[in-house]
């Protein structure tokens, strides 16, 4: 079956109210409210407002008026106060956000259980679609030159948003779960045996969204797909297979042409030699090129060793399925050649990833490049890291302090808005100890590509 244009799907046309251009107003009273529970002994936090250029003051006023009109915020006299800032969206517009870093630091993290990795998923975002518990509303207060305002609905930047929305979605779709619907955090996947059955399933899902006044963005929806990438696998009527994009960073590594490239590849392979039986024997034709005075001649034996090591690196037991009850570790590195990341758990590799720098990134300062590598990892492994504890290691020491820095450029502000949804801590790791991510960032032989498909129901674009 081919993908059908969304505007040509009859069942979708039956539910125009589920796909508004913008949220129409306050959400219903739901069984699930968004809570902000604080660490014992926490006192109200009041931050000063950031300096805002005159042209942005007008944007702040426009945002305030719009949010007031919908009931999403109200005036406040709270002792809490957090500053606002603007981040750029992909379409060129700007979004007003609140810097809730200080609030998130003292918020107890919600441990709502997320699906295990062998479930299914797709995408829906629910900011402004859930009310905040009345007693917690004052904690969301933000400060502007026009006064203090507090959110009555779940807003961007609040740390437990994914877990609470997951809870809501499970309640809404309870009767359909594991029959033809799977929910993963803020995502929905509908699966069916036939096209006729799928149309009925889709109608039932859209009816649920209508009943609960949950809204979707049509441009992020796709329907009637034969296969879907899911948590590192390709799921189709033929069964489940490994997603080639998961291991493309290693499988597409170009054949070394100079000694430096041989050393980079062996540095990556050698880091995991304890997972590779007979590593020294397999690698010997390549390691001989590192010896002084040996001319660089790429023989059939060296090509065979190169191919075998790539095969061993990308098959069990090196790449393992993650356990979402345990924390993750991500190693990130950036160079002028590209970004490199490795996702691990308990010392075992789950996935490799890297990409070349885009033209506009080549002139980024080192600090921003290293932060871009972190963001790259969070985006491509979102389905693993959302709602789970994550330790991130980088060889750029100043990134440790990104959450407490007061002076951030516009790019860093925008990226920080994305990072704040994750429960993570950034650590410094010297370059020599970060050999895997470093090797991936320096290798130019591939470009990683990944897409999210199926029914994507989303309202806000967080990038």
UniProtKB/TrEMBL annotation:
It holds the Pfam family RT_RNaseH. Residues 323-422 form the Reverse transcriptase RNase H-like domain. Keywords: Endonuclease, Hydrolase, Nuclease, Nucleotidyltransferase, Protease, RNA-directed DNA polymerase, Transferase. Residues 87-234 form the Reverse transcriptase domain. The keyword Nuclease applies. The keyword ATP-binding does not apply. It comes from the Eukaryota. GO terms for molecular function: endonuclease activity; nucleic acid binding; peptidase activity; RNA-directed DNA polymerase activity. InterPro entries: DNA/RNA_pol_sf (IPR043502), Retrovirus_Pol_polyprotein (IPR050951), Rev_trsase/Diguanyl_cyclase (IPR043128), RNaseH_sf (IPR036397), RT_dom (IPR000477), RT_RNaseH (IPR041373). GO terms for biological process: proteolysis. This is Reverse transcriptase. It comes from Paspalum notatum var. saurae.
């Amino acid at each position: 079956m081919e993908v059908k244009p969304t505007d040509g799907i009859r069942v979708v046309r039956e539910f125009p109210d589920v796909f508004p251009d913008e949220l129409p107003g306050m959400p219903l009273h739901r069984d699930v409210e968004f809570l902000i529970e604080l660490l014992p002994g926490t006192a109200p936090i009041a931050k000063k407002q950031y300096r805002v250029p005159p042209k942005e003051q007008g944007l702040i006023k426009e945002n305030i008026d719009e949010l007031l009109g919908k009931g999403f915020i109200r005036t406040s006299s709270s002792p809490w106060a957090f500053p606002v800032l603007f981040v750029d969206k992909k379409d060129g517009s700007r979004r007003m956000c609140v810097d809730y870093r200080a609030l998130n630091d003292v918020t107890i993290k919600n441990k709502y259980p997320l699906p295990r990795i062998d479930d299914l998923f797709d995408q829906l975002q629910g900011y402004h679609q859930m009310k905040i518990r009345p007693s917690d509303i004052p904690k969301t207060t933000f400060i502007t030159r026009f006064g203090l305002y507090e959110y009555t609905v779940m807003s961007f930047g609040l740390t437990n948003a994914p877990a609470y929305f997951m809870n809501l979605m499970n309640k809404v779709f309870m009767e359909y779960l594991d029959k033809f619907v799977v929910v993963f955090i803020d995502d929905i996947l509908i699966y069916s045996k036939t096209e006729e059955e799928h149309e009925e399933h889709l109608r039932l899902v859209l009816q649920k969204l209508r009943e609960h006044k949950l809204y979707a963005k049509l441009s992020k929806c796709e329907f009637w797909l034969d296969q879907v990438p899911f948590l590192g696998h390709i799921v189709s009527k033929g069964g489940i297979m490994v997603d080639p994009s998961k291991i493309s960073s290693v499988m597409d590594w170009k054949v070394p042409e100079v000694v430096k490239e041989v050393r980079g590849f062996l540095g990556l392979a050698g880091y995991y030699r304890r997972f590779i039986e007979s590593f020294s024997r397999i690698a010997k034709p390549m390691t001989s090129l590192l010896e002084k005075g040996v001319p660089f001649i790429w023989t059939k034996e060296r090509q065979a060793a190169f191919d075998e090591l790539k095969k061993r690196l990308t098959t069990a037991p090196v790449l393992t399925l993650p356990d979402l009850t345990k924390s993750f570790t991500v190693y990130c590195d950036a160079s002028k050649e590209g970004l490199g990341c490795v996702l691990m758990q308990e010392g075992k590799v789950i996935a490799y990833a890297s990409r070349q720098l885009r033209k506009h990134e080549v002139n980024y300062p080192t600090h921003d490049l290293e932060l871009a590598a972190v963001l790259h990892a969070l985006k491509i492994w979102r389905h693993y890291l959302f709602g789970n504890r994550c330790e991130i290691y980088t060889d750029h020491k100043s990134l440790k302090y990104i959450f407490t820095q007061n002076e951030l450029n516009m790019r860093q502000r925008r990226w920080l808005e994305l990072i704040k949804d994750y429960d993570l801590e950034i650590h410094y790791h010297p370059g020599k100890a970060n050999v895997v991510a470093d090797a991936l960032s320096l290798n130019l032989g591939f470009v990683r590509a990944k897409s999210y498909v199926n029914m994507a129901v989303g309202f806000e674009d967080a990038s």
